[in-house]
Amino acid sequence: MKHILEALDQRREAARLGGGQRRIDAQHKRGKLTARERIELLLDHGSFEEFDMFVQHRCVDFGMDQGEKIPGDGVVVGWGTINGRVVYVFAKDFTVLGGSLSETHAQKITKIQDMALRNRAPIIGLFDAGGARIQEGVAALGGYGEVFQRNVLASGVIPQISVIMGPCAGGDVYSPAMTDFIFMVKDTSYMFVTGPDVVKTVTNETVTAEELGGASVHATKSSIADKAYDNDLQALLQMRRLIDFLPASNTDEVPEWPTFDDCDRYDMSLNTIIPDNPNKPYDMKELITKVVDEGDFFEIQEAHAKNIVVGFGRLDGRTVGIVGNQPMVLAGVLDSDASRKAARFVRFCDAFNIPIVTFVDVPGFLPGTAQEYGGLIKHGAKLLFAYAEATVPKVTVITRKAFGGAYDVMASKHLRGDINYAWPTAQIAVMGAKGAVEIIFRQEIGDPDKIAQRTKEYEDRFLSPFVAAERGYIDEVIQPFGTRKRVARALAMLRHKKLENPWKKHDNIPL
């Protein structure tokens, strides 16, 4: 028996070496961790249970049967825990044939996807690979298709997270694209459908891998990545933090963690956060961190569409999704990018029963030909649609401006907002006083005194929260310092809310 156990240990040790020590050293030299090192950092110490360690590919073409069979076949799969909660994980191993996807490689991934879906637990994919294994041809492509199908079936059922920690090209990019969140590592990761060489051949455009699909590009311009981190370690530790905010599945309650932050806490500084000048900005993130438990706010897509802020926080220990217009950027207007960013976040929260808290300070939609030609109408409708279909608890606080159609879009009472508060500084109207007066009293434009008087009349009549409150569109005008307490109590009251939309196969959101 002893020699059998020793043989098992030897086989395991060989499998754990992946492509060998020389390739592991090369991986470290690039500033990257190996697949198993990444899993060890991501999961609770000693919790990882690996499956299919000895799986090998079955390809015999192009010399693949001559010494190229390495146990594990370029991907490490299994399950473990993060702060005691079960998660499934797969990590592509770049030291084995560049982490390329073969038929058996794909079967290992689909096996763990099926387990995650059956057992209703999150799945995290760590990507570091060169695409499909060319030697296997259509078998590799079929493997991709199997992975993609499971991404779609799991969407909205269990959280799916992709972390790009090296190259991710060709067919490899579409699996992350269908997951809930994508995170990248600066300088060592990139994503693109076709690489720089193909781009050069087809379009005669010279571009580097970093310029084409690096972390800075996807976190700022394309919005493919939700955030970019400085190195592997930071990325993996932040994934542990993110998982703490997320429910295990769409049938689970949101996580509830002990907090030392009293939900009845008042913050008097909120009384002075709104400047006296209505055109002067303030930082919505400051407001958010003052309201959530212990100032802990996990922002999503912070480098893209900065005129709106989205992310996760906690109130009374329970996860909430937070959306807020950012007056510091473009005065907080809604444009195409901001609408898409917030719409996707709202739909994620609704899919996983995460309550949504919305802070409103929006002067309207961004005007101009660039926005109109770029489809602002449909992009704005995405956010409108997302809020309108959401059945989770929705609490809204209007801090300052809520003008025009943007007032409706931002979780208004008319879109089944459950509790809608306003600060005394709120201004709810079709448009700002200046624009409104210039339209209503166009004939008096030449008389500055009359225009000033009319502007004052308009401000007194419409630019206050009380007109909306008179009609029941605002449930209460609250003191800013008590915002945390009022929102937390509202969410506690709504904890067992039940609301169902009419039956449908699926909706047809304006994509």
UniProtKB/TrEMBL annotation:
- What processes in GO biological process is this protein linked to? carbon fixation
Which keywords appear in this protein's UniProt record, sorted alphabetically?
A: Transferase
Name all CoA carboxyltransferase C-terminal domain ranges: 265-505
Task: Identify the Pfam families for this entry.
Answer: Carboxyl_trans (PF01039)
Tell me the protein's name.
Answer: Propionyl-CoA carboxylase beta chain
GO MF term list: acetyl-CoA carboxylase activity; propionyl-CoA carboxylase activity; transferase activity
InterPro entries, per database record = AccD/PCCB, AcCoA_carboxyl_beta, ClpP/crotonase-like_dom_sf, COA_CT_C, COA_CT_N
Q: Name one GO cellular component term.
A: acetyl-CoA carboxylase complex
Protein's UniProt keywords contain Transferase: yes
The taxonomic lineage of its organism, from the top, reads: Bacteria, Pseudomonadati, Pseudomonadota, Alphaproteobacteria, Hyphomicrobiales
Q: Which family does it belong to?
A: Belongs to the AccD/PCCB family.
Cite the CoA carboxyltransferase N-terminal domain residue spans from the record. Answer: 1-258
Q: Please tell me whether the keyword Kinase is annotated for this protein.
A: no
